[in-house]
Amino acid sequence: MQRKILAFQKDDQGHWMAELECGHKQHVRHRPPWINRPWVVSEEGRQRHIGRRINCKPCDLEQSSEHSGFDTHH
Which of 3, 8, 13, 19 could be bridged to 56 by S-S, CB 3.0 to 4.6 A? Predict the structure, then answer.
């Protein structure tokens, strides 16, 4: 599910994470050749991505569990 990026912060290991409008956080790494996000390494690049949408894996999991009939919330 696509969610807007509201801000960025670093995790405990210094990796950048996007804070999403849904409240989840998503790592946004630049690790060529597998993950190519050079914009992550500069403040200007991160600021240009505020408001853009990225896929939120936790929201995808929540949505698929709602449709499957299983309750993932305890």
Answer: 3
| Single pTM value for the model | 0.79
What are the structural domain ranges in the chain?
A: 2-68
E-strand stretches of 21-58: 25-27, 53-55
DSSP labels, 5-46: EEEEEE-TTS-EEEEETTS-EEE---BTTTB--GGGGSHHHH
Give the whole-angstrom CA distance, residue 69 versus residue 3: 24
Nearest CA among 64, 39, 44, 56 for reference residue 5: 56
In whole angstroms, give the CA distance from residue 2 to residue 59.
9
Output the furthest CA–CA distance in the chain (Å, rounded).
Answer: 43
Mean pLDDT over 23-46 rounds to 92
